Amino acid sequence: MATSRSAGLLAIYPHITGRDRRLLQLLDEHQVLTTDQIHRMLFQARRTCQLRLGELAALGLLDRFRFHRDGGGTRPWHWTLGHLGHRFQAAAHHRPEPTVRATRQIVHRLSANPHLTHLLLANEFFVRLTAHARHHPGTSLDRWWSETTTTKQFRTITADGHGLWSSGDTTVGFFLEADTGTEPLGRVVAKLDRYAQLTRRGGPRYPVLFWLGSAHREEHLHRLLGGEVPCATATHAADPADAVWLAAGATARVRLADLPSDHGQPVADNPTFDDDGVFLT
To answer: In terms of DSSP H, where are the helices of the chain?
Structure first.
């Protein structure tokens, strides 16, 4: 394209599609996505996705990095906002414009983040729901909040993400705990105390979804679950929209849309309602 990396935002606007804007917003909220994740959410053909990502990088809207693969070769490209992407999002959300140095630091710190694998895993959960909705009319991911936004909105919990999933006339809220297997299960279960406190204050009583790496770890976790917070488990191999969720104390797996979900009361601690008590998506 004729527009160079150094061009201003106004010169780039004619080259940005609605799909591009959605991708910029996703990366602004969720920091990083792989080529495959972006393809499944936003594109039909993988080659078209690869070409478009390269064009957006040439415009300065995106940046990318990848790592060496043990045994040879490289891992997939990890995409994040480039400097002009950060400028675009700052303008869209009335934030101070970042410097080149600041945006480079963001990319460097993200690429070196020891929790990058966990971040990508949490994002993968929501990517699968988004991809599922593309191919199943009547379903939709109405809300996808990152860990940062979830913590900011609910204040006392530290979930890996929060979402609202709709199937037909049913809308189920949930909190995600994406498990990489590095924490003792006792510490994992201890997180439920904060969810219980949220419910007691009039907040939502959403199921806490433990997404685990193996059936063995899932089996051991169920021995520890119980109490007032609804919980369900599934493994990373499963499509989270399908009948893969085993609730605490249950014997049969159900769909995400069939898990019990209570949106709570229209109180100050519940961001699911506005000041007039209207349910928000």
So the answer is: 9-12, 18-30, 35-42, 46-58, 83-92, 100-111, 116-135, 147-154, 185-190, 192-200, 215-222
Question: Any idea of the CA torsion for 179, 184, 188, 191, to the nearest 10 degrees?
Answer: -140
Q: What is the pLDDT of residue 122?
A: 98
Query: What span, in angstroms and rounded, lies between the C-alpha atoms of 249 and 266?
Result: 30
Q: What's the burial of 111, exposed, middle or buried (CB within 10 Å: 0-12/13-18/19+)?
A: middle
Map residue 7 onto helix, strand or coil: coil
**pLDDT band at 4, cuts 50/70/90?**
very low
Q: How many angstroms separate the CA atoms of 210 and 183, rounded?
A: 13
pLDDT band at 274 (very low <50, low <70, confident <90, very high): confident
The position carrying tokens 């994406």 is 178
CA distance 189 to 211: 13
**How big is the chain, counted in residues?**
281
Distances (CA, A) of 127 to 8, 66, 262: 31, 20, 24
Distance CA 154, CA 176 (A): 14
pLDDT of residue 6: 41
Distance in angstroms (rounded) separating the CA atoms of residues 45 and 207: 35
Place of tokens 């909705």: 133
> 239 exposed, middle or buried (CB, 10 Å; 0-12, 13-18, 19+)?
middle
Residue 2: the pLDDT is 41
Q: Are the C-beta atoms of 150 and 162 separated by less than 8 Å?
A: yes
| Rounded Cα gap, residues 208 and 113, in angstroms | 26
34 pLDDT higher than 70: yes
Contact call for residues 132 and 165 (beta carbons, < 8 A): no
How far apart are alpha carbons 197 and 18 in whole angstroms? Answer: 40
